[in-house]
Amino acid sequence: MLTGFEKGIGFKSGLRDFKNHLNAYTILVGILPVFIICLTVGAVFVSLFKGVGLTDSEIASWKFAIYVGGGLISIIMALHYKQPIVGAWSIPGMVLIAQSMKFVSYQEAIGAFLIAGIMDLLLGITGSMRKVARFIPLPIMSAMIAGVLFAFTTRIITGFQTNIWVGVASVVGYYIFYKWVPKTPGILGTIIFGFATAIITGEVKYTPISFIPTLPALHAPEFSLPGFISIAIPLAVLVLGAENMQAIGVLRTIKMEPPVNAMTIISGIGGIVTSFFGGHNANIAGPTTALCAGPEAGKLEGRYVAAVFAGLTFIFYGVFARTMVQLISFFPKSFNHILIGLVMLPMVGRSFISAFQEGKLMFGVMAAMIVAMSNITLFKIAAPFWSLVFGCLVSLLLEWDDYKEYLKEK
Asked: What is the pTM assigned to this prediction?
């Protein structure tokens, strides 16, 4: 049975009331933390995809696609529904793809991105998203994410070994901002203290930066079975089962009724469009939706304004993606390792909590996490896919009573 977009309040209402909710809090929440996220996760992004052989131009086009796409989704959804719904892209999906691209070409990965977008769109149009997400229980999904991301947190130790002074300054900066600077991400302290120390210790090498807008490049997709299995399927499930469901849960906790079908459909459209520019998805994002939905963004009815500013920030970052890649190249290795680890740390923590807090599917959760951490590859298909397969299989065999609870209609 086909479904469609839920009827929203409308753009006219969102635009008309926009100025009534403008204040320092909504603007600050929408711009500062989001730009810091862009910069810090951007460092992870560049490091991962340079590691699998992508050029600066390919990375810039990819970033343009997902940031501009995510920004447009934020503005459209926030204004139309007057809810703090934010679009961005999947960070766990990024890591999953980087692992798989050791065995899949960039063109085959792009084909997988396109298929993942089509799958998400069809799941949204038919209203089948909940059934698919439920077949892979959230604890097992969370265990896979925790396992995939865990190795990145250990880079903090690598950073300390490379330059102990940068390491100490980065962690101290994080602590100071986390503990004593309210409404500001701790990672900002890492950037200020850690980068300043890297300059003092002579690790930063300056190169000219060109402040020119990025022009995205069209990419032709190629299709392969390894790409479909190791990228398209896990990415489609991650976008809907992790990102969308987290955003939906956040909005419901603040007593809003999120447009579930619309959020699913626009995530599918985002995945299709961005794939032609080399991007892996533009979708509803759980963490940034949570950021703009919190009390720091002002009164409940005006928090959608913060989501609009978040969208504008994403678009700015995407348009100047090439400049940001150059800026990130200033980060020395020791600082980069610590930055990546500290960015990933909260995500790993939330994933561990989500995997274990219910106390169910323990064998499946552990199987999924161990396989994801092992970085095993079978038939040129990377560990994240096998993590979900073995996690679900172990729970089906050993924990059927718990597993069947996730298959019931709710």
From this structure: 0.77
